[in-house]
Each structure stands twice: as structure tokens, then as C-alpha cells.
Design brief:
Layout lengths: L6 H4 L3 H7 L5 H15 L7 E5 L5 H6 L5 E6 L2 H10 L6 E5 L11 E6 L3 H4 L4 H11 E12 L4 H13 L15 E3 L5 E3 L3 H11 L2 E7 L3 E7 L4
Parallel strand pairs: 1-2, 1-4, 2-3, 4-5
Antiparallel strand pairs: 5-9, 6-7, 8-9
């Protein structure tokens, strides 16, 4: 979801972000696991992986046993500090403070991930995020981007209500919320990328791509950087 600049870095970071994923809503739990399972199904076990907008490393920890090495970057210093502790027992995980729109690496990756609606949650131009991701991919590599499916809207709204009730987000402004857009009274505004948006981004990437709905909860854009 598209987030106001700095919201995750300033308000919803570290321990608060951790609490977001301790949801009690079974359908949301299923959605979160389905995204991880979908990516895991595309791994052979030998990949070097980069996750953009990794938060505190929730997804990294789940995927680490199924790949060679995973690096996560996030712009929120408090989330990364929390993540270093959260991942300290996992030797093939590294998490660093870095802006996904201007990543600095001397290597390429077999897989780039931007999950859980990261295309929107990461501030800035999503087209630039796509371009940067493609540059970081090794030949033959794949990039995965996900957003919420329209079929998941009621469950998504219930999840955000749960977060607001627990004080993790501001109160939801129901007069302004609807049609895939969530607005909170503390300034948080969120929208989703639909199938057409994903297809447009796929075309702009210059890569072979596929758009796929997963578990009626996520829409995935998968980019394939074919060897030249």
C-alpha cells in the first residue's frame, strides 16, 4: 500500500511493526504465509536473494532455510536494529539500513523480493523501484512484487482495523476509506496496485513478466531477466 513519506520509518517501526504481524485473524495469517510459500516454491536452494523493504526480517527468517543467502534492506533504522537481534541466530541472513531507491551493492542477486505490498509501502516512484530491482538481478534472475488482491479487501480492512484498535495505527477514517484505499486519521494513507497496474509495471520493466493471483489474497508481478 502507498504510504505517506516516512510513516514506517517514523511511526510504524521495530517493535510496533513486529506486533502488526501478530494478527489474530486467520484469513490474514493464511495470506501472509501464502506469499512466503509462493516465493519458496520458486527457489532451488542455491540463490542469493535481496529483499527490499525488509522491515525487521520476518520474511527473511522464513525463507532463509531454503536459499544460499538473503540480504535485507530497509530505510527505518529502528526496524533494522530490531532485525539484527531477531536474525542473530541465522548465519545466512544480513540486514542493513539502505534506501531501496538508491541501493549500493557491488554484486547482483538471483532473486529480488518486494513483498507484502512493498511497491507501495516503500516511498517514492514505484517505476524507479522496478528499474533498480532489474539492475540488481543477475542474468537468469527473477524479481517478485506483490500487492493485495481486490478479493482480499474485506480481510485487509479488518486487519487494519485490528492494528488501529491496538494502537499500531491511527483511527481509520471510514468516510474516506473504500475502493482499495485505507485512510487513517493520523495521516496514514494506503492504496493497492491492481492487475492492470502490475501489467503496466511489467511492460515498463523491459523484462519478460507474469502477473498471477495467489490464494485470492495477493497479486504478484514476477519479472524474468533472461540472458542476453
Amino acid at each position: 500500500m502507498k504510504v505517506e513519506t516516512g510513516y514506517y520509518a517514523q511511526k510504524l517501526n521495530s517493535g510496533k511493526l513486529y506486533e502488526v504481524y501478530r494478527t489474530r485473524i486467520p484469513r490474514v495469517i493464511r495470506y501472509l504465509q501464502a506469499e512466503i510459500d509462493f516465493v519458496r516454491g520458486h527457489l532451488r536452494g542455491e540463490e542469493k536473494v535481496l529483499e527490499l523493504g525488509a522491515g525487521y526480517g520476518r520474511i527473511m527468517k522464513e525463507l532463509a532455510p531454503f536459499l544460499l543467502r538473503i540480504t535485507g534492506i530497509d530505510i527505518a533504522e529502528q526496524s533494522v536494529a530490531f532485525g539484527k537481534e531477531y536474525l542473530k541466530e541465522i548465519p545466512n541472513c544480513t540486514i542493513e539500513v539502505m534506501d531501496a531507491h538508491s541501493p549500493k551493492f557491488d554484486e547482483t542477486f538471483d532473486v529480488v523480493l518486494c513483498l507484502q505490498n512493498g511497491l507501495s509501502a516503500i516511498k517514492g516512484d514505484p517505476e524507479n523501484l522496478i528499474r533498480r530491482s532489474v539492475r540488481l538481478l543477475a542474468e537468469g534472475g527473477k524479481a517478485f512484487f506483490s500487492s493485495y488482491s481486490p478479493k482480499f479487501w474485506e480481510h485487509c480492512l479488518a486487519w487494519f482495523r485490528e492494528q488501529a484498535d491496538r494502537g499500531l495505527l491511527g483511527e481509520i477514517d471510514m468516510e474516506k476509506t473504500g475502493n482499495g484505499r485505507i485512510v487513517c486519521k493520523d495521516g496514514f494513507t494506503a492504496t493497492t496496485f491492481d492487475l492492470r497496474d502490475m501489467e503496466r509495471l511489467g511492460e515498463l520493466s523491459g523484462c519478460r513478466y507474469r502477473v498471477e493471483e495467489v490464494e485470492e489474497s495477493s497479486i504478484f508481478l514476477i519479472l524474468f531477466k533472461d540472458p542476453e
